[in-house]
Structures are given as structure tokens and as C-alpha cells.
Amino acid sequence: MPYTITTEITIETSPEVVSNILFDFKNYHQWNSWLKVSGGPPREKEATFYFDLIGSRLAVYATQPARTSSYTPIVALASPSVLKWCRGDKHKWALDGEHTFEIIASKENTGRCTFRQGEKFTGTLAKGLSLTGYYERQRDSYERMNRELKLFAEEMVHSDEFVERFSEERERHNFKSHHFNID
After folding, report:
1. 3-class DSSP assignment, residue 54
2. Fewer CB atoms < 10 Å away: N or C end of the chain?
């Protein structure tokens, strides 16, 4: 029986800014106390970055109060508004996870978006984990990451260094042509 966790937070900055932060894996350490992510194509591969990211194997290190775990998921979907990876473990029948990050533009305010993060767990162990507190710890970690992303995005959007770097990224990845999902 599948088990799903979904969390979301409203961020007072544009979806393009949040996307730039989310896909900048090498700088997660600046704002994310839970996940460290490496791998994927270099961000400099302007026109094909998202296409090249699909099928890439990432290295993910998740730090929780009791322990740090690591896994190497495969990116299933990547666009400026969505990042989805699957754990890709050998024993999917026992436990598998499909983790999704989604950035949804606000209808009313171009300087606001919703960041949604969730994971669908499947496999024979999925139901049993609900008895261990595992999903509650995962939800807490997702919510912590959401809060940290919000704080970083809202503070950094006013930083001159960030504005300059983001302007370059915006031109390189042509954000203007991408349509974010509208909430």
C-alpha cells in the first residue's frame, strides 16, 4: 500500500528565483541543513540543462537528528518548475520512493509562489514504516527544508550579488519562455 507525504509553503518571491535556488545543487549547503545533493550536468550547459538532468544519477545525503543517510536517485523529470527523482534501488519491491519538488506561480502576484514537496513510498515495507515514526520524521525534514528555502529565497532576492547571479542564470536558461504552473 503506497504512503504519500505532501508539504507546501508560500514563498514571497518569484518562481524563477526559487527554481534557480532549487536547481543549484552545489550551493545547497548555504541554506539547506537537511539535504546535500551533487551530480547532474553542469549549470553552464545552458540550453540543455533540464533535458540533460533527466536520467542523471544524483548523490543525496539526508541529515536528520539521529543519523545521516545517503542514496543515489535517478532524475525522472526536470523543468524550471518541477524536479522529480526516484530512488532507483535494486529492491524496489521492498521500498521505493518518488520525491517531487514543484514550484507553482501565484495567480495574483508575480512575486509569490508555492513550493510543494512530497514523496510517494511504495513497496512491501511502505505500510510497516508508518508504525515506526519514519514518515513523521520525513515530514518534519521536508517542512524544515521548505522553511529554509523560503527564508533563503526571501532574503537573497534583495542581495545585490544574488540579483546579478540570477540575472545571468535567467538569461542563460531563458526562464521567460517557461510557463510555471499557476495556482
Report:
1. coil
2. N
Whether 58 contacts 26, CB under 8 Å: no
CA 61 to chain centre: 13
Degrees (nearest 5) of the Cα angle 167, 83, 93? 165
Helical pair 134-156 and 15-22, crossing angle rounded to 10 deg: 120
Check whether 89 has a pLDDT greater than 80: no
CA 157 – CA 166 distance, rounded (Å): 9
Contacts of 48 (CB under 8 A, 6+ apart): 41
Q: Among all chains, which residue has been given the C-alpha cell 540579483?
A: 163
Contact 99, 77 (CB under 8 A): no
Indicate the DSSP class of residue 103: E
Q: What is the pLDDT of residue 177?
A: 47
Q: How far apart are CA 164 and CA 121, in angstroms?
A: 39
3-182 folds as Alpha-D-Glucose-1,6-Bisphosphate; Chain A, domain 4 (3.30.530)
